[in-house]
Amino acid sequence: MWYFTWILGVLLACSFGIVNALWLETTQNLDEESAGEQ
Hints:
InterPro entries: Cyd_oper_YbgT, YbgT_YccB. Helix content is 95%, strand content 0%. It is built from one helix and no strands.
């Protein structure tokens, strides 16, 4: 059953990378919007 754990680990790492990229995109957009208002 090691392959089940390996697949779960890979999926968790991929989902963490996707969430992190989306979070960085969101914070970058918020920073650009707040800089444009000033």
